[in-house]
Every structure is written in structure tokens, then in C-alpha cells.
Specification:
The protein is an alpha/beta fold and about 375 residues long. The protein has one domain: Rossmann fold. About 30% of the residues lie in helices and about 20% in strands. The strands form three sheets. Strands 2, 3, 4, 5, 10, 14, 15 and 16 form an eight-stranded mixed beta sheet that branches. Strands 1, 6, 7, 8 and 9 form a five-stranded antiparallel beta sheet that branches. β6 and β7 form a beta hairpin. The protein is globular and about 65 Å long. The structure holds S-adenosylmethionine. The site of S-adenosylmethionine (SAM) has 19 residues, from loops. S-adenosylmethionine binds next to loops. One of its GO terms (biological process) is methylation. This is SAM-dependent MidA family methyltransferase.
């Protein structure tokens, strides 16, 4: 997420509103489930805790009503800067589709309320109307509450829209998968070095019933495969499920591409010896730093993306990583013709668009924090 409170709103967003108390109404069911699971198994993995905290059908952070993304929510993303992000992505997608005759698909994951889809579809309608009749915009959305929000926001494009719960509902079709800030929201396991190995760090309960970190013993081999050794006490996060998660998606964009935009590092940086406590973060009302185990369901949980692991998962599925670069370089390349057209214009609308572009690309804002990884599948 564009969760840099200090710098982000410069692109035209108004100042962040005052802290608001979260709505805790739906949480008791989620708490009872987690307590019960922990008591029965004497500890659960952090991945299971995160799954419930974010995606429990009633109490999960993303399943609950209210805004999570944007000025009135808990964090910003590039989508909240304004429609420019979607407009630039639309140019990129259209240039790929110009070489693909016949029916094509944009497949979005992590579409949230549908705002990016709307920005992309509006831009395509304006700039590439010939593409629309052969385009399906598919969204894979497991949460019914978000699917309903997407249907509402995308009602003007219902003729092109398909929202499904799983990739298995989609036939093969040439296309591009787009996912902005999806991987950082996928569940992760926490592990802790013992000096000569790794333990899994799970979640238990203290005598008062509060959630606490609890060692679950030696980590299973898939969690620590290929990891460098680190001194005792070093903690980090891993997502061993990436290849299994991506596998059913590849046939839905065949032939095609997968485009991931997110924050994170390559392996060397991700497991830097100085990064002794990983990258797990919480966000609530634009503030970071709350305890990850406190009030599950009331705050966002996220961990950076290990782009080396993502690359390996894509390659294991037969994908070829064609681009890995930062958001500044990626968007500036796409925007070149657009920027040339704006040269010499001094009106307010142009000034606003250029401010938005700067927010998306300036290294001190979103330009170097976010990276894109694009892989092709034949
Ligand atoms: C940080 S938000 C990003 C929202 C949006 N893409 C944006 O950039 O504003 C992460 C989103 O990923 C969704 N998500 C997480 N796991 C998912 C999965 N397995 N399939 C589809 N969406 C998922 C969450 O529900 C949430 O809406």
C-alpha cells in the first residue's frame, strides 16, 4: 500500500482526516473462532491468524463494510491517487491487445471496490473503443461483500464484466492478469531463526486470553527452502504458497501476461541481516505500528513481497519474467506520448494531472517504493 503517511497525499489528495475509532461490531464471532482453534491445537500458524483477521466472511478486515482504501479508509494505494494510474495501465494493456485478434480478457485480482477496473474501462472506452466489443473484464473475488461493491461501481460496464469466485470458472482466453497490491495482502508465515535452523512463530493465548506470539517448533521444510542462515532471534515472513496460488490463474490468460505491482524487495534485500524483524505491518486510519495480533479484523495486516520468490513461482509455472522495474520507470515509459501531448499546457486540469503523475512516479513518493513484475505465458 502507499502507506507513507508523511509524503503520500501530495498528488492532489486532501489531508488525512483525524483518527476514527474502528467499528468492532462484527469481531466477536471471529475472536471466538480463533480462540477455539488455538485452544484445540495449542497454537495456530500466523498465516491462519492472518487469513481469519483479513478474510473471515463476517469479521475479516476486508469483508467488513466501510472503506479500507483511500482518504476515508486506512491506507492509500496508487488507485487512490486518481484515475491516472488506471489510464496509464489501460494504455499498456491496449498495446498488448493490439497484437491479439479475437476475444481477449483482463483478469483482475485484489480488485477491492472495483475502482481500478472502472478507471481502466473508462480509459479504454475513450481511447480504444474498438477493443471493447471483444473484451471481457473478469474479476476473481472470493468475498461476496466486495463482489457486490464491484458490481455496483462497474454497473455501466456490466456487458463486459464477469465476477467469479475462483479461476476454475473461467475458460482459457488470451489476456493479462493485473494485480495491484495483491501479493502483500496474501497470508504469510512468520519464522524465527534459532541460529542453526528456523522455528515457525505462531499465535497462542496468554492467561488473560490475549493473542501472543508462540513458537510452534521447527518450521516445515517448504517454509524455509533456500533461506540464508541468520542469527538466533532474526524474524521474517515467507509465502510458500505462491506457485500453488498462481497455478490455476495461468490457464485463464492463455496466452498472455501476469502483471504484479507491489512493494517489496529481491531476496538479498528481503532477508538483509539488518532487517531483524521482517516487514509485517499493520495499518489503521493511516497509522502504522499497531500490534499485529491485537483486535483481529479491525486493522490491515501486510508484509512486503519477496520478488525473488514471486519470480521463481512464475517461472515454475512456465512464465518468463520480461520486466522487473520500479513504478517510476514503468509508468514513465507508458506515459511518454501523453507527457509530450501535455507539453506547453498550463491549465489547472493539466497541472492536477501532472501532480498525480508525480505522486505515482517520484522516488520520494510511490515511484521507487513500488515495483512491477511482468511475466509472459505462451
Ligand atoms: C491492499 S488491497 C488492494 C486493493 C486494490 N487493488 C488497490 O490497489 O487499491 C488487497 C486486496 O486483495 C484482495 N485479496 C486478497 N487475497 C485475495 C485472493 N486470494 N483473491 C482475490 N482477492 C484477494 C483483498 O480482499 C483486498 O481487496
Amino acid at each position: 500500500m502507499a502507506k507513507d503517511e508523511a509524503t503520500f497525499p501530495a498528488g492532489g489528495e486532501k489531508p488525512v482526516p483525524a483518527y476514527r475509532e474502528p467499528d468492532r461490531q462484527a469481531i466477536p464471532g471471529l475472536l471466538a473462532e480463533l480462540h477455539q482453534e488455538i485452544v484445540h491445537s495449542s497454537g495456530i500458524s500466523f498465516a491462519r491468524f492472518m487469513e481469519a483477521a483479513l478474510y473471515h466472511p463476517e469479521g475479516g478486515y476486508y469483508a467488513r463494510p466501510g472503506r479500507q482504501v483511500g482518504r476515508l479508509g486506512d491506507f492509500f494505494t496508487s488507485v487512490s491517487v486518481g484515475p491516472l494510474f488506471g489510464q496509464l495501465l489501460a494504455q499498456h494493456l491496449a498495446s498488448f491487445f493490439s497484437h491479439q485478434p479475437g476475444p481477449v480478457r483482463i483478469l483482475e485480482l485484489g480488485a477491492h471496490d472495483g475502482q481500478l477496473a472502472r478507471d481502466i474501462l473508462e480509459a479504454l472506452t475513450q481511447e480504444h473503443p474498438d477493443l471493447l466489443p471483444r473484451l471481457e473484464y473478469a474479476i476473481i473475488e472470493p468475498l461476496p461483500s466486495l463482489a457486490a461493491r464491484q458490481r455496483e461501481l462497474l454497473a455501466p460496464f456490466s456487458a463486459h464484466l464477469r465476477i467469479v469466485e475462483t479461476p476454475h470458472a473461467l475458460d482459457p482466453r488470451p489476456g493479462i492478469l493485473v494485480a495491484n497490491e495483491l501479493i502483500d495482502a496474501l497470508t504469510c508465515h512468520r519464522i524465527e531463526s534459532t541460529g542453526d535452523g528456523w522455528d515457525e512463530l505462531g499465535v497462542g493465548l496468554d492467561p488473560e486470553g490475549s493473542f501472543i506470539w508462540k513458537s510452534l517448533g521447527p518450521a516445515a521444510p517448504p517454509l524455509i527452502f533456500g533461506l540464508p542462515s541468520r542469527p538466533a532471534g532474526y524474524r521474517t515472513e515467507v509465502r510458500p504458497q505462491l506457485a500453488a496460488f498462481l497455478a490455476p490463474l495461468a490457464p485463464c490468460i492463455s496466452p498472455g501476461k501476469m502483471l504484479f505491482i507491489d512493494y517489496g524487495f529481491e531476496r538479498e534485500d528481503y532477508f538483509d541481516p539488518a532487517r531483524t524483524d521482517g516487514t509485517l505491518e499493520t495499518f489503521q486510519a493511516h497509522r502504522r505500528g499497531g500490534h499485529p495480533l491485537q483486535d483481529p479484523g479491525s486493522r490491515d495486516l501486510t508484509a512486503h513481497v519477496d520478488f525473488s520468490a514471486l519470480r521463481e513461482a512464475l517461472e515454475a509455472l512456465g512464465g518468463q519474467v520480461e520486466h522487473f522495474t520500479n513504478q517510476a520507470r514503468f509508468l514513465t515509459e507508458i506515459a511518454r506520448p501523453w507527457l509530450l501531448k501535455l507539453e506547453g499546457r498550463t491549465d489547472r486540469e493539466t497541472a492536477k494531472l501532472l501532480r498525480n503523475f508525480q505522486t505515482l512516479t517520484h522516488p520520494a513518493q510511490l515511484g521507487s517504493r513500488f515495483h512491477i513484475m511482468e511475466a509472459s505465458f505462451r
